[in-house]
TrEMBL record:
Pfam families: DNase_NucA_NucB (PF14040). It comes from the Bacteria. This is Deoxyribonuclease NucA/NucB domain-containing protein. The lineage of its organism: Bacteria, Bacillati, Actinomycetota, Actinomycetes, Kitasatosporales. Residues 16-77 form the Deoxyribonuclease NucA/NucB domain. It comes from Streptomyces diastatochromogenes. InterPro entries: DNase_NucA_NucB.
Length: 88
C-alpha cells in the first residue's frame, strides 16, 4: 500500500477491501505531487489532496495520464514541465 493510499484511508476512515481507491492531486507522478518530498526535502510531505474515488474512475484517469505522458513525450527533466488546467 502506498503512502498516499495509507494516509487517505486513515484520514477518511476507509477500511481495507473498500471498493474505492484514493486519488491524489497533484499527481503522484509529478515532483509537486505526493512523492515530491522524496525529491525535495523542503517540501511538506503532506502537501497534496486525496479523495476516495471508484476504482474504475481512478484506473481510467491513470490510463489517460499515462497516454498524455506518452503522446506528448513527457520525460523526467527540468525542461519538460507542464500545467494542469482544471475545469468543471
Amino acid at each position: 500500500m502506498s503512502r498516499t493510499t495509507a494516509f487517505a484511508r486513515r484520514s477518511r476512515g476507509l477500511l481495507t477491501g473498500y471498493f474505492r481507491e484514493c486519488d491524489e492531486f497533484p499527481f503522484a507522478s509529478t515532483y509537486e505531487g505526493a512523492a515530491g518530498s522524496r525529491y525535495n526535502p523542503r517540501q511538506d510531505p503532506l502537501n497534496f489532496s486525496v479523495m476516495p474515488v471508484s476504482k474504475d474512475s481512478n484506473g481510467a484517469a491513470g490510463n489517460l495520464l499515462a497516454q498524455y505522458y506518452k503522446l506528448n513525450r513527457i520525460i523526467d527533466g527540468p525542461d519538460d514541465g507542464f500545467m494542469v488546467k482544471i475545469t468543471s
